[in-house]
TrEMBL record:
The keyword Electron transport does not apply. Belongs to the glutaminase family. It comes from Shewanella scandinavica. Pfam families: Glutaminase. This is Glutaminase. Keywords: Acetylation, Hydrolase. It catalyses: L-glutamine + H2O = L-glutamate + NH4(+).
């Protein structure tokens, strides 16, 4: 376990970067978040959690939820059923781009861009009676926190600004790669994005990625092989068009969200969550990336 003093050092070292990024402003509920927040939490494979800064303050997890939805899909579907509909390659485009969906005949590049996550939500919607409730149940269990919930205001606001995601879903439907009712699946997808969790919740919830598929409560969520595969996808596509830069600087599988959170793992050792709402040009937390970079340097860890 890293010392608490190290986590505090990471926060203080990076704090001067606040002011250099831009808070997501596509919906009012995100635009009004305090840009000065900064936090980090780590959970070890022994199940111990430690945090510094604003690590107990809940934030909108946004695209970090795409890790949970893919994981849930892996527990419900044969792999071929998933990978025949979504690819495993980095996109080289922004996370909400329509361009590739048209050029590649409705098959998204990977499960972490919006198009891919919408296909995964479509899969969950068609197999689960109550996909929103099931997700809530899963994340509450994984974070050992019954208070985790959906931020209704964020979910509704996303829905009111859903033109681009709806366009992506309809375009995929036109190619036969979207089965459900677009509106219903969009609502489910927006609820997943609107989950509110803090750094401690998320570092606990992601422990299975560092612990060969075993969750913090000791259950095997996905297999060891599936965990390795999921981490490979996170390392190549988890930070969208910034995945190369993130691999270079941080050297860990990770996933970002426009709420300013990033989760990352050191396989066999730790799961980490950082949060700072200001984003860089790729939609990834600017200070969050810097915190992970500093932590990896201080711990002398990289998967490469
Ligand atoms: O659907 C969207 O575009 C947002 N609710 C989530 C995007 C997101 O978090 C991308 N991550 N950096």
């Amino acid at each position: 376990m890293p010392e608490l003093a190290l986590l505090e050092e990471v926060v203080e070292k990076v704090r001067p970067l606040l002011g250099q990024g831009k808070v997501a402003d596509y919906i009012p509920a995100l635009a009004s978040v305090d840009a000065g927040k900064i936090g980090i939490a780590v959970t070890t494979v022994d199940g111990e959690t430690l945090g510094a800064g604003d690590y107990l303050e809940p934030f909108s997890i946004q695209s970090i939820s795409k890790v949970f939805s893919l994981t849930l899909a892996l527990t419900l579907y044969e792999e071929a059923e998933i990978w025949s509909r979504v690819g495993k390659e980095p996109s080289g485009h922004s996370f909400n781009s329509l361009v590739q969906v048209e050029l590649e005949r409705g098959k998204p590049r990977n499960p972490f861009i919006n198009a891919g996550a919408l296909v995964i939500a479509d899969l969950l919607q068609s197999r689960l009676g109550a996909p929103k409730h099931r997700m809530l149940e899963l994340v509450r269990q994984l974070s050992q926190n019954d208070k985790v919930s959906f931020d209704k205001q964020v979910a509704d606001s996303e829905y009111q600004h859903s033109a681009r995601n709806a366009a992506i879903a309809y375009l995929m439907k036109s190619f036969g790669n979207f089965q459900g009712d677009v509106d219903t699946v969009l609502r489910t997808y927006f609820h997943y994005c609107a989950l509110k969790m803090n750094c401690a919740d998320l570092s606990k919830a992601m422990l299975y990625l560092a612990n060969r598929g075993k969750s913090i409560i000791g259950t095997e969520l996905i297999s060891q092989v599936q965990t390795r595969q999921l981490n490979a996808l996170l390392a190549t596509s988890g930070l969208y068009d910034g995945a190369g830069e993130f691999a270079y600087r941080v050297g860990m599988p990770g996933k970002s969200g426009v709420g300013g959170g990033i989760i990352a793992v050191i396989p066999g050792e730790l799961s980490i969550c950082v949060w700072s709402p200001e984003l860089d040009g790729n939609g990834n937390s600017l200070a969050g990336t810097a915190m992970l970079e500093h932590l990896s340097q201080r711990l002398g860890r990289s998967i490469f």
